[in-house]
Amino acid sequence: MIPDYQTLMRPVLECAAAGEIRIADAVERLAEKLGLSPDDRAQLLPSGKQTMFANRVHWAKTYLVKAGLVEATRRGHFRITARGEAALADSAAAINNAYLDRFKEFQDFKTRVNQGDGGGDAPPVQASGSLGDETPDEALRRAHGAITGALAADLLDRTRKANPCFFEKLIVELLLAMGYGGTSEEAGRALGQSGDDGVDGVIDQDPLGVDQVFVQAKRYAEGNNIGAGAIRDFFGALSLKKAQKGIFFTTSAFSASAIDTARGLGSRIVLIDGQQLARLMIRYNVGCRDEDVLHIKRLDEDFFEG
Fold it and tell me: Contact, 152 vs 275, CB < 8 A?
């Protein structure tokens, strides 16, 4: 299990006790010392740009710098200070946000962060509590995940209550946003041919109409899941049309037998349940829009090395 960033403060300090150290080397040394598994070491943040462990080590070091226990020396390097050595000498001290809070430099840092003045991308810093166990990146993404989850639930609820014509229009807009089809008029006519031999519509996979994808769309209430029979019927309809690809959308879910049936038929049928539908709507801004955009900035080391 990956330790939280506060738990890593003392180990990071110990890494710097022997002299100047590179942050990347500290990450590797601590991973070895803590006996992290390969999976733990490879676990990425949701952004996919940094491992979770490296992120937590970086934030532990950052907070130690803000409290004056370590100091940045040159690019990507840091070393312990006299204050840090004193902290290490107290073996009974739990070095965490509460400990750092005894230093005015850290208190000033918290004030700047909490007032949004020069605090970068960090959320309010607390000396204790659940938020204090998360790095700023994790807290930000947790909040983003909660907002996105609530939005997905709202989108799905509104979609289930909409009329069938609106649901067809929604599927058209989504497929167009994903790069399928030519124009909304052409796609709308195609998907509007409901009940055609068990297929609700067909849409071009490319703007030229070289390849086509057949679509089945079922606007069902939660709990009214799609069974294996519906998948077999759709497969039969595709076979009649000599079609190679099909997408089955539903606002509910697919039963285990339905999923097994689709899997047994190869990759010809893609199943999109309500949760996946909502995520796609959010990703492609269908039925929702950007309210605000937050840019997470990082220090440009190259700028200061010139």
Answer: yes
Residues 283/156, Cβ–Cβ less than 8 Å: no
* Alpha carbon distances (Å) from 162 to 148, 195, 220, 288: 21, 19, 11, 15
**CB crowding 14-35: b at 16 or more within 10 Å, else e:** bbbeeeebbbeebbebbbeebe
The residues, any chain, with a CB within 8 Å of residue 213's CB and separated by 6 or more, are 180, 202, 203, 204, 205, 245, 246, 247
Query: pLDDT per residue over 150-206, tens digit each?
Result: 888 889 888 988 888 888 888 888 988 888 866 656 555 555 554 544 557 777 776
Q: What is the DSSP string of 17-30?
A: TTS-EEHHHHHHHH
| DSSP assignment string, 170-205 | HHHHHHHHTT-SS-HHHHHHHHT-TTBTTB-EEEES
pTM score above 0.85: no
Whose CA is closest to 113, among 129, 93, 132? 132
Cβ atoms of residues 297 and 120 within 8 Å: yes
pLDDT at 280: 95
CB-CB contact of 181 with 211 (8 Å): no
* H helical segments located in the chain: 9-16, 23-33, 38-42, 52-66, 82-89, 97-100, 104-114, 136-161, 164-177, 184-191, 228-240, 256-264, 274-283, 301-305
